[in-house]
């Protein structure tokens, strides 16, 4: 009997354009499609938002967030790297729902608090203390690119993963890990009201 394979779901056209731009620039740190689909799904639940992204890169995550954004929603993304911010800005130049900032991640605080925040650059290493105030009560934060661990506390390269532990045990958040590919997980946390 022939093997049954799942059809590959088409990508949103803007995601395809962003990926092409990232590839042309040699930027290899865009989010995986699995993370992108998670972002689009969560963005659809964020209503008028705002939805935020720390670390635009070349706009792949931004394009996924935009694909899910509810009607009337708005999206703010920031990148410290002027080339990355310019590339993402060019993708959304005609889109009034999207604001692209060429700045440090902290500049995003002036546009929040966020119903959904993809924490993917700058503030990521500071843990929940660094970004908690950017997230609205009931809002959700997503961090990706963690290596799956079946231990508690979670470990990475033999050491306790303090960043992940901080998120998973912070009393201001309800948090869990979601598999996003072979051996990789994203962290999803809801800020408690
Ligand atoms: C993993 S990449 C972002 C990928 C993007 N979110 C995506 O899914 O396509 C991280 C980005 O964070 C940016 N970054 C690093 N430090 C930053 C800071 N202090 N403030 C803002 N952005 C920063 C980098 O320039 C880089 O483009």
UniProtKB/TrEMBL annotation:
Organism per entry? Actinocatenispora sera
What is this protein's name?
Answer: Transferase
The UniProt entry, under InterPro entries, shows: SAM-dependent_MTases_sf
A Pfam family reported for this protein in Swiss-Prot or TrEMBL: Methyltransf_24
């Amino acid at each position: 009997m022939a093997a049954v394979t799942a059809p590959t779901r088409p990508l949103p056209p803007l995601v395809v354009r962003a990926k092409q731009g990232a590839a042309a620039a040699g930027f290899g740190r865009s989010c995986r499609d699995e993370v992108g689909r998670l972002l689009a799904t969560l963005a659809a639940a964020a209503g008028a938002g705002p939805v935020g992204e720390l670390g635009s890169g070349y706009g792949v995550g931004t394009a996924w967030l935009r694909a899910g954004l509810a009607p009337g929603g708005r999206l703010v993304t920031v990148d410290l790297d002027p080339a990355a911010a310019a590339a993402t800005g060019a993708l959304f130049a005609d889109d009034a729902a999207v604001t692209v900032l060429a700045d440090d991640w902290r500049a995003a605080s002036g546009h929040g608090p966020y119903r959904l925040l993809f924490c993917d650059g700058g503030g990521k290493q500071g843990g929940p203390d660094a970004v908690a105030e950017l997230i609205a009560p009931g809002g959700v934060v997503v961090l990706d690119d963690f290596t799956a661990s079946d231990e508690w506390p979670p470990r990475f390269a033999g050491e306790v993963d303090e960043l992940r532990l901080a998120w998973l045990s912070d009393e201001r958040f309800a948090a869990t890990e979601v598999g996003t590919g072979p051996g990789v997980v994203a962290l999803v946390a809801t800020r408690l009201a």
